[in-house]
Every structure is written in structure tokens, then in C-alpha cells.
Amino acid sequence: MTRILFITSNRLGDAVLSTGLLGHLTETCPGARLTIACGPLPAPLFRSVPGLERLIPMPKRSYARHWLRLWLDCVTTRWDLVVDLRNSAVGRLVPARRRVFHAKAARPMHKVEENAAVLGLSPPPAPRLWIDAAARAEADALIPAGTGPFLAIGPTANWLGKEWPADRFARLASRLTGPDGPLAGARVAVLAAGPERERARPLLDALGPRAIDLTGRTDPMAAAACLERAALYVGNDSGLMHIAAAAGVPTVGLFGPGYPAIYGPWGPHGRAVTGSVPQAELLARVAADPDARGLMDGIGEDGVAKAALSLLPNRIGRVTSLRQG
Q: Which residue spans traverse the membrane (predicted)?
């Protein structure tokens, strides 16, 4: 029996972007037994991976004891393949017939391409999600019955400097779901992690009864099950943005001081929107003041709406048929 150890990120977005490589392994190594090590936050996304034998969440511990714990968990198995995207000592110190490691690319490339290079894959396999029945049942409970295709918005991020102003999200939602919008009459789902919930409150208040409040209510797997029903996702550069894109949702990601060439939403149905202020200037402002504000102010509503409109044709009918099927 083939056994594979797959060590991926503790960060949600990076973990999602590694799922294309993982999916390639499940397809090309049928019958293999997989052990996946990752951070606690993205762990639910891996619980239904085909061939999963063990899922090892790795909460950080002082003095890097989480790595020692992982080594103790894995050293007694002889692995046929170790794929270590953390480039860790564990990947080198467990017994293995073959081992491959993430290496920083010699030239700038998207993270999906960088991950694929670990196994020399070209073209790179796209990120994917294995959404299970439990997550879909949770989505059924969270999204009101009878809700048609809806707009999903992720108004927060893991850093305030990456958040587009809430009032602009509100105006964009009105523009897309108003009487003359492409999603006329649609409801608006607002998603945010638990610690970011209060930062999403101004948008929820602005939307009023049109809002579906999904802030702080789902783990990543349930969030994916909710998002796959959306007609469109618009949000800041965040893990939720990558979940939406991997779930097959047309995705608009907003980037200020971030790196859209490396972390933009992957695939033909993803768009990265940047602002009028050059990235170099934004990064210089951050270097001078880590708490600098207004870093996303250069992103105009017109540019975001244009990106959204380019993704919407034919999506509504497909989502409606999925909900009726």
C-alpha cells in the first residue's frame, strides 16, 4: 500500500492553493493512503480528501514543539512519498523512498504554479475542494430556503490594510443587486472569520434585510458549501477569496499592497482588481507605518463592477439549476 505524507500550510489561503497538487496525487496514485499535516484553521477543508488515512492539525507551540509532535507522529511509518510544502526538517527526518520540497521560485509566479513545480507539473493542476454532505447540510441550514443565486461578499481580511472600505462594498452590492443590476433582487451573503465579525458589521447594517449573515458562523468547509451556491464572490485578498475560486465561483479579488500576480484568484473565472496607487508606493507606506490606513482607497467601484460584470454571464442559470437539482 502506498503511503503519502503531505505537509501544507497553516494559513488558509496557502493551504487552499496547495489542493491542486494534492488532487493530482489522489488521481495519479489510486489506492494511496494519505496523511495530511496543516494548520488547525484549514484542516476542515481536507477531511474528505479521497484516501485520507490521517489528518494532523498542527497548532503552534512554543519552541517549535509542533514540529517535534509531527515528527513523532510520522517517524514510525516508512513513506513512499513525502511532499513537504513547508520545507521542514520533518520532511527530511522521516523515513521515505522519495521526498520533494517546496522551493522559492527563481522568477515571480503564482503560488499554484510554484506548488506544481514541486512535482514538475505543467500545466499546474487547479485548486479544488472536496465538499462533503455534512457541510452542504450546514449550508442548507444557514442559507434561507428559497434563496436564489446570491452575491457573496468577503469584506474583511487578516490585516486592516487589505480591507476595502465597507461603504464601497455596500454601494457595489446595491449596484449589482438593484433593479437595473445583473443580480436584480438577489440577496447578499456576508462572510468573515469569527475575530473579524465586528469589522463586517457596517456592511451588514448597510444591507439591512437583504443580508445573509454568515460572519463567524462557519468553518472553511461549510463556508465553501455556502459559497458554491453564489452567483459571484467579491472580496479582499484573503483565504475566503481562494475558497470561493476553488469552489468554482466567479471571484473578484481586491488587491492594494498585496501581490495579485502571486495570490490572485486562480483560474479563468477569477479577476484581480488593483487600484490607481502603484503597489511600490503602497508598500513604502506600509514600511514607514505598519498601521497605515487608506491603502485600498485607490480601488474604484467602477473597476470592481466592470470585473464583476465580465464574470456573470451564464452563471445565474447554472447556479439555479444546481439548487433545483
A: none
